[in-house]
């Protein structure tokens, strides 16, 4: 079994290799490293013997590189994590080469020449299992896969590839405004939603987060519509998927789009004045209260406890 894996970030080497081998056993694994992963291809050592490296993040260029490597390497499965640019690139490849594709896959296996996969919907309330023929393209959710510790006996062989020029010409690239949030690594996250009446009121959440040594996350409207926080705080289907030890959701109703991003949280605590809010069905602990009354009291109690 041969797998061509696309690494977009350096940590993808370990996560994809672990996820693939947990699913398929001792598969032959070849990497294509792009974007930030192309800056640290040595991190593939121990996971793969060969790494193709191309310093590009363009979906069009990545798609052209994959077409070339699929023709040369003839993999059974092409796998990448669900980054926006990789979703774009792998979709192009699947369409052009007429390959079956499965997205947001949590696990997969190969039986009788077919790829069987599993994916969840509606915050994992519903799970679909299906199969597609090989060769297949898989968008794999590995953010909750803990890479296995390895001691590489030899360095991976690195093959440099020039980024191919597509038909689209990039005139200018402007980075999105980011707030420095690192939600994927956070052990505690304070999530904010539309229960907050103004941007200025978010200072309550930031004050609480400081006391808890937590990061601030938010729902889609807070980042995408109101622009109260930058997009690196956005949690959900179109944002980030996180796995903190504690997720404190304040003024969040609990839509499936948001809750799918926190389904791997160890403990969820919800604060909402609406006792019928959907989030209470998924929370481990719930507080039915007005956040403007409850959060100041909580902050006061935490300060008193710290001072003692």
Count of discrete domains: 2
Distance between the termini: 60 Å
> N-to-C SSE series?
EHEEHEHEEEEEEEHEHEHEEH
CATH class of the largest domain: Alpha Beta
Shape label: elongated
Arrangement of strands in the largest sheet:
5-9-4-1-2-3-10
Overall helicity: 25-40%
Regarding quaternary structure, what we see is single chain
CATH level-two architecture of the largest domain? 3-Layer(aba) Sandwich
Domain Electron transfer flavoprotein alpha/beta-subunit N-terminal: 56-164
Protein name: Electron transfer flavoprotein alpha-subunit
Keywords: Flavoprotein, Transport
InterPro entries: DHS-like_NAD/FAD-binding_dom, ETF_a/b_N, ETF_a/FixB, ETF_asu_C, Rossmann-like_a/b/a_fold
Task: List its salient traits.
single chain, 308 residues, alpha/beta, Rossmann fold, 2 domains, 7-stranded parallel beta sheet, 5-stranded parallel beta sheet, elongated, flavoprotein, flavin adenine dinucleotide binding, electron transfer activity
Task: Set out the fold topology.
Blueprint: E1 2-7, H1 12-24, E2 28-33, E3 50-53, H2 59-73, E4 77-81, H3 84-97, E5 101-105, E6 107-111, E7 114-121, E8 126-133, E9 136-140, E10 157-160, E11 188-192, H4 203-212, E12 215-218, H5 220-225, E13 246-250, H6 256-259, E14 267-272, E15 285-288, H7 291-307
Parallel strand pairs: 1-2, 1-4, 2-3, 3-10, 4-9, 5-9, 11-12, 11-13, 13-14, 14-15
Antiparallel strand pairs: 6-7, 7-8
């Amino acid at each position: 079994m041969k797998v061509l894996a696309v690494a977009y970030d350096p940590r993808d080497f370990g996560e994809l290799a672990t996820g693939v081998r947990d699913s398929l056993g001792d598969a032959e694994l070849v990497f294509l490293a792009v974007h930030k992963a192309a800056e640290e291809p040595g991190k593939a050592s121990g996971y793969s013997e060969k790494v193709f490296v191309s310093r590009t993040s363009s979906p069009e260029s990545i798609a052209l590189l994959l077409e070339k490597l699929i023709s040369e390497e003839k993999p059974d499965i092409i796998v990448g994590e669900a980054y926006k640019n990789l979703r774009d690139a792998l979709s192009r490849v699947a369409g052009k080469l007429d390959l079956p594709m499965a997205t947001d896959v949590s696990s997969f296996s190969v039986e009788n020449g077919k790829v069987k996969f599993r994916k969840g919907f509606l915050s994992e309330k519903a799970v679909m299992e299906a199969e597609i023929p090989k060769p297949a393209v898989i968008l794999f959710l590995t953010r909750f896969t803990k890479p296995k510790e390895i001691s590489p006996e030899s360095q991976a062989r690195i093959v440099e590839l020039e980024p191919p020029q597509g038909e689209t010409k990039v005139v200018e690239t402007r980075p999105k405004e980011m707030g420095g949030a690192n939600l994927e690594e956070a052990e505690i996250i304070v999530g904010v939603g539309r229960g907050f009446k103004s941007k200025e009121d978010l200072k309550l959440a930031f004050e609480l987060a400081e006391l808890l040594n937590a990061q601030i996350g938010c729902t889609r409207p807070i980042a995408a519509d109101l622009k109260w926080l930058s997009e690196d705080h956005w949690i959900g289907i179109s944002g980030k998927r996180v796995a903190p030890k504690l997720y404190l959701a304040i003024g969040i109703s609990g839509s499936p789009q948001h809750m799918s991003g926190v389904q791997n949280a160890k403990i969820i605590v919800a604060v909402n004045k609406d006792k019928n809010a959907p989030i209470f069905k998924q929370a481990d602990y719930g507080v039915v209260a007005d956040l403007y009354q409850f959060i100041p009291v909580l902050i006061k109690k935490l300060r008193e406890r710290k001072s003692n």
